[in-house]
Amino acid sequence: MRHRSAKYVAFATAAGLLLATAAGAGIANADVGSQSKSGGETKNEIVYVKTDASGKTRGVYVVNVFNADEKRTVDDPSRYTKVTNLTTDRQLSQKNGHVSVETTADQPFYYQGDMPADTELPWNITVGYALDGKPIDPDDLAGRSGDLDVTLTVTADTAAANVKDFAEAYVLQAQGTFPADSYDITDGGGATLATAGGNTVVSAMVLPGESKTFRIQGTAKDFQYSGWQIAAMSLDMAIDIRSQDTSKLTDQTDRLEQATDRLSDGSKELADGNAQLASGAAQLDDGLVSLADGAGKVDSGASSLASGAGTLSSGIGTVAQGASSLASGTGALASGASRLASGVHTLTGAVSDLSAAAPQLKSGADTLAYQLAQSSDDAAHPTLKDGWGSVRGGITQVKQGGDRYRAALQQGRQSAEAGSQTAGQQVAEASQAYQTALQSFAANPQSAEAQQALNQALQAFAQANQAAGAYAGSAKAMEQAESGYDQLGAGIDTLNAGAATLDVQFDAAREGTVANGAKQLASVVDSVATGLGSMPADSLRQLDSAADQVAAGAAQVNTGAGRLAKGAEGLRSGGAALASGANALANGTNGLNAGARSASEGASQLVSGARSASSGAKTLADGNAALAESVQGMGDEVLDELQKTIDRKLGADFKPHSFVVPTNTNVNRVQFTYVVAGVDSDTAANDAADGGDAASVDDSSDGSAESSDAGSKGSDSGTGSDSGFAALLERIKALFSH
Fold it and tell me: Where is this region: Disordered (predicted)?
């Protein structure tokens, strides 16, 4: 009898709902819906759905409950296949889509209407069984043992127009009762497990609009259970979100508003900074243009210097060549003078030889005087005077080119230093803009706008650093070039001073000892030549004395010419080094000129990029300002949307209407109860033992729109006695015994 008693849980659930409905006094009169001869009456509907053990619908029964303070006749809209009076013995009839009901005074009136088993329902229920991993029909499951899975699936029908509002507004509570000694449950599959006596009660809830599956797992032993009882009803919950503590939510929206304000302010500062960067980049571009012009002048001066150094080197070569020729001539002169002296001493025996040598000596003396005092008209045979003039002119060009180069270096260095200072200021400004963008990004790392602003600020900072580095490098290169030139300039000054000294010495040589010696030699030779022609024998002593003087003068000339030749060779070596250095300097200034022009082109690109960045930053600032404006009051908007979501989820917008006839809104409440049959090997015997009465429902009855049910005969006065309500419960018991 234990299993037979568990079977009546369904009956107890249905009776409880019926009692709760009858006891609820909140049934208000309405002006629309059911038509009554004495006025409108609202009702409650309890929809009972009987299914087999797999969830297939076997019958749909609706118990209609009217609470009236006086006896009235009501025409209730309907579409039943059969109607049964559950309160009195009065026969009910259904005609033209209405059931005529005569309520009783001061007590509920119940009547049952049967609907087709294929009636569209708000939820479809399926129950599946798997024994030892294989699906099994519930008819074959009773008394079986093994690992058993029971799967309950609730599927909400949110598409059908007549029932979707019930599925979307009602909460569904399912309860299954399993004997603990018949089914040891190890996993509720998301449902709640509770122990009630010797039974395990499985409870599962499905929220409005949802579909769910619960897989219960355990071990079966001689399995049987009483089935599922599933009730669905509206929540009737009104939650005012503004009456709750929403500070955590509103605090976050307030922080969002503050963050967008800061983002707007920061992006405006970024736009201002980019505008300043664009202005500074324009100044940088102008400075680099000036630098490029200065570098061009430096390059031109270095080229002139190289050209002058080449001319100087060529002139020094000519000087060295003339000095070498002079040294050779004076050597010959000294040798001849020495031989003259020797010959004079032997003049007595060699007058004829002296007469022959005198013209040669005079010619050499004349040549020397000519080399020192005259210029040649033949460039291929320059005189010593011509060579020295070329050397002196080359040294003068070197000095002038060096002065122009030094001035150009100073001007280029000053321009580079000014540009470096301007670039340093721009680096500081770009760094500040980068820090601001970085702080904005740290405050909201998920923001694509903050990420973009940070990337732009970083790029601007890198460009400013690059420009500053270029200026600093240019200034350093100018400074090093100027320092290097200081040494070269000192050499040029030394060369110029030496040339001046050599010039004085050359003039002194031309007008002093060498020239005088040459003149004396020429004069003496001339005298000798003259004297030889008319020389008496007693004049030999005079000739001897003159020969000694000639030898001494020739020795002096030879010594001076040797010194001049050595100086000229040193001058040749210095001139070659100067020409090489000037060429290297010219090559370096070419690189400097190219670098300056490249920097100028880069600055032009920087100006273009800075202007683009400034435009983008302004657009960003405008967008962030619009964003900050749009999030103002977001907290209230979020709460309003949250309230709407909660109301929708709780079915707050649900308007009660009849399940039977959806257009009938003269309904206070509609409840649903699904009774899913269990698995019991004694079911047939128990059904035979339970029997039934005249009010029990025949599942195979089709009924008709005009059917009627006389029910049990008796008084139709509706006195509300305890025996009348007991009879109602007996009828419901009979309903769930099948």
Answer: 687-722
The pLDDT score that the predictor gives to residue 394 is: 77
pLDDT one-digit tens code per residue, 218-230: 999 999 999 999 9
Q: State phi, psi for 229 to the nearest 5 degrees.
A: -120, 120
Task: Map 168-201 to HEC letters.
Answer: HHEEEEEEEEEECCCEEEEECCCCEEEEECCEEE
- The dihedral of CA 531, 536, 540, 542: what is its sign? negative
Say how far apart CA 585 and CA 492 lie, in whole Å. Answer: 14
For residue 65, list its beta bridge partners. 44, 110
Q: What is the mean pLDDT of residues 65-81?
A: 91
| Largest distance between two CA atoms of the chain | 205
- Cα-based distances in Å from 580 to 488, 540, 575: 12, 59, 9
Residue ranges per structural domain of the chain: 42-235+668-681, 313-559
What residues does 124 pair with on adjacent strands?
Answer: 155
Across 495-517, b (16+ Cβ under 10 Å) vs e yields bbebbeebeebbeebbeeebbeb
Eight-state DSSP code of residue 695: T
What does the pLDDT read at residue 649?
56
Give the number of other CB atoms < 10 A from CB of residue 540: 16
Question: How many angstroms from the chain centroid is the CA of residue 101?
Answer: 73
CA distance 68 to 27: 9
pLDDT tens string 540-570: 576 577 667 767 877 886 887 788 778 778 8
Question: DSSP class of residue 90?
Answer: P
Residue bearing the bigger pLDDT, 442 or 496: 442
176: which strand partners? 202, 228
94-124 pLDDT, tens digit per residue, is: 999 999 999 888 889 999 999 999 999 999 9
**Residue at 341: amino acid letter:** A
**pLDDT over 90 for what percent of the chain?**
27
State the Cα–Cα distance between residues 692 and 737, nearest whole angstrom: 8
| Ordered strands of the 708-709 beta sheet | 35-36, 73-77, 98-102, 92-95, 708-709
Mean pLDDT (the chain) is: 77
* pLDDT of the residue at 459: 86
Question: For the whole prediction, is pTM greater than 0.70?
Answer: no
Instruction: Find out whether 557 and 301 touch, Cβ atoms under 8 Å.
Output: no
Q: H-helix or E-strand containing 240?
A: none
b/e string for 724-733 if b means 16 or more Cβ within 10 A?
bbebbeebbb
**Which one, of 635, 560, 548, lies nearest residue 372 by Cα?**
560
Which segments of 374-447 does DSSP mark as H helices, in order?
Answer: 384-443
